[in-house]
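Changelog note: in this version the structure field was regenerated for every chain. One regenerated record is shown below for reference.
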Amino acid sequence: MEFIDKVRNKPSVQKIMKFFPAIAFLGGFGWDSITLGMSIDDSDLWFLLAYYTGALILVILLSARLEHPEGWTKERLAAAAAAQPVRPAAKSTAKTDSKAEAKVETKVETKVEPPAEIKAEAPKPATAAKAAPSGKLGKAAEMAAGVAANAAGVAANAAGVAAKATANAAANAAGATARAAANAAGKLADKVGYESTAIPQNAIVVEHHFLDREWSPVWKDRFTWALQFFFGGMFSALVVCYFKSSGSIASFILVILLAILLVGNEFLKKHYESFGLNLALFCLLGTMFMNFTIPHVVHSIGFGWFFLSTLLSFGICTAIWKISRRSKGVLIAPALISILLVVAYLMNWVPPVPLVLKQHMACQNFDKATYTCDMDEPTFLQKIGLGTPTVHKQEGNEVYFLASVYAPAKLKAEIEYRWYYEDPTTEKFKLTDKISSGRMVINGGRETGFRSFSRKKNAPPGKYRVEIAYKNGAVIGAGAFEVFDATPEDTFVRDTLQ
């Protein structure tokens, strides 16, 4: 990590990093646009699962906080106690050594008391005759006692000096040891993420758990950067997948929301320190991800599977909340998001992923065996998608609408065709026919899509719009065209639905 930090702090790298979010955004979104939606491989799902798992881990890590600022674990108390100032301990040691010095001096003075007794001793009566000659000896004894007393005093002073030197050395050694312990304790406190080693007066011992900590600014920066990366990867892939499955304005609203969050993700890095925001976005992404992934596993789509996706995503968010030991308030946003998504699905506002409309065409004289039919020769604008296709219907012919819908292998889903006709008087489209049958059950796995068709007899001239939708569900895609009565000058081309 130190090597990475050094590289990131270089001026040249700092300049490049300013453009990194835009480069990563455009590159990732472009790659997803090319690869995803055309066909989904197992590797794509594994990549999405890796993004989701990485985001899950980082949301848990960023939920860490000091649950009780006044509550300390036993380990933290031990580290903080060792990091306290060392002067009180040095004074205590000096006092102890002074007492030892006093004891030494007392013992020395006791030893010089016998000469004083000799000096005060009176001659015995039985030896009175010898008193005179022994007077000189008494003076000599007194002198010897004085010399002995002076020697004892010198020895006591020397002992006192030695004791003080020993006390000072012991105090210095104790101070150095305490300072080393304080430095080690400070490093330990920084390593485990505590911002302070000062023990408050109301400190209480609490049960230790991994997320009862404050991450250092360096680690917060690393975590938020990684979370931004994983969220960005998921937003990019989901925008592409849901866009390709979106066939109506209503379902396109959700795609627009995901696109806004995709762009906003490039500016939300600092805000990802907020656990509430992380949990809300994780719930949204989790539901969208599972709604896209589960059909690949169970080979089916429908409200039941979407509800399971929503429930599973919210359940994981609830588990994260329990681990984080936060207040219940952080679950309000995930709960509201889950409820709104279920309502949106019931209103057919959620695109029916992973179904994708690959191709569609309006024509006449359809051959079911080869899926070929006669189309009006397209103009230049129609070829580039800027003109509305036309069908110059010959008398007695039926108008056909052909479509191919992609679905993952083994997935089965029933679709329906919804025909709309524009009323010439009101210029508004009205639903005229809703066509579905047993032959319109998609069998996934064909890269170019499952082919099906519907037809309309006696189609009057005018503008039409045909929607291909999941039966009784959201629209997968739609095509518009205009019907005219044929003239001899009209030219047709034979085309095939791939």
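Spot check on this record: Confidence is low (pLDDT under 50) at residues 89-134, 191-195. The first helix runs from residue 2 to 8.
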